[in-house]
Design goal:
CATH architecture of the largest domain: 3-Layer(aba) Sandwich
Number of domains: 2
Oligomer: single chain
Helix content: 25-40%
Shape: globular
Number of strands: 14
Structural class: alpha/beta
Distance between the termini: 31 Å
């Protein structure tokens, strides 16, 4: 059996037709904490940040109309509660408006520019006429409505650990692949087979489009689902191959469910790279993985975000 050939099921999900935009007028000192809340607890269609006069920022977060009201009210309460700890909760202003799909896309493009990740990788929108240098490894993406442009610290930290970890011809699993930036990065760094999974059908569709855009369909695959739900042929094929590196750029609560499941897919010297967790959450993650038979390998930090890696004991 050719281990590079994996049949992909057809996906035809439709993106939301409208988005609800929430603007958050806040003090600069509150910026990082509010962004951490958005990225950690709420699935949105992207975030914009605009600098205002007087040391203030305007954060704009986009939510699909489905379930937007409930999420937005929850978001407001959490921001007010968490920012009260550092002071200034009363100085935060909220407003909402509806954005059509086309307007969302055009707005997003204004804020999406080339971004260097690690030493070599650079992520750039496909509409930019970007000319990489000889030493750069470019990833061209069209984010669509899927979350992930490579501009967040978690992606940057993950790429940093990938550059230190991946060896030529490694097999890589990417749990929560999103727009497939990390999966494509793994390919550029030398991996010979990368399998990305996501539990958002539209994200998988965008991931496949980005994989095609970067001409790596033969080595990078994207599936709908997750390691906890796979059954049948796909699961059997992944278990047969096993992997050298597993990427988990996902939230803490999801990560904590994975240690035992990850071991099923790992070769003896495989490395698990975890990103998407806050500094305050790291010790809980470390203890859980060590309790499950892993040992800490590497930790990287930027702002209040952590990426870490583990191997089996």
């Amino acid at each position: 059996m050719d281990e590079r050939k994996i049949t992909l099921p057809e996906l035809k999900p439709q993106p939301p037709k409208k988005w609800t935009a929430v603007t958050i007028d806040c003090d600069v000192i509150q910026n990082e904490q509010i962004l951490a809340i958005l990225y950690t607890f709420y699935s949105s269609g992207g975030v914009e940040i605009k600098e205002l006069a007087g040391g203030r920022n305007l954060i704009i977060a986009y939510f699909s109309e489905s379930g937007a009201s409930k999420n937005i009210e929850s978001l407001k309460k959490r921001i007010k509660s968490d920012t009260a700890i550092i002071g200034g909760a009363g100085n935060i202003g909220f407003s909402e408006f509806t954005v059509d799909e086309e307007d969302w896309a055009n707005s997003w493009k204004k804020f999406f520019s080339p971004k260097k990740l690690g030493k070599k990788i650079i992520v750039t929108p496909n509409w930019e006429n970007y000319k990489p240098s000889r030493s750069q490894l470019p990833i061209f993406i069209e984010p669509g409505m899927a979350f992930g442009t490579g501009h967040h610290e978690t992606t940057e930290l993950c790429v940093k650990l990938l550059e230190e970890t991946i060896k030529k011809d490694d097999i890589v699993f990417d749990v929560g692949t999103g727009t497939a930036i990390l999966a494509i990065a793994a390919k550029l760094l030398g991996a010979s087979l990368i399998v990305g999974t996501d539990n958002d059908k539209y994200a998988v569709r965008i991931a496949r489009e980005n994989i095609k855009l970067n001409k790596c369909e033969d080595t990078v695959k994207a599936f709908y689902g997750n390691l906890l739900s796979f059954r049948g042929k796909i699961r059997d094929e992944l278990l047969l191959r096993k992997c050298d590196v597993i990427i988990c750029n996902i939230l803490k609560d999801a990560v904590l469910k994975l240690p035992e499941k990850l071991k099923e897919f790992m070769r003896p010297k495989a490395v698990v790279i975890i990103s998407g967790i806050l500094e305050s959450q790291y010790e809980e993650v470390r203890r859980e993985f060590e309790k499950r038979g892993f040992k800490s390998r590497r930790v990287a930090q930027k702002s209040e975000w952590i990426a870490c890696s583990f191997t089996l004991k």
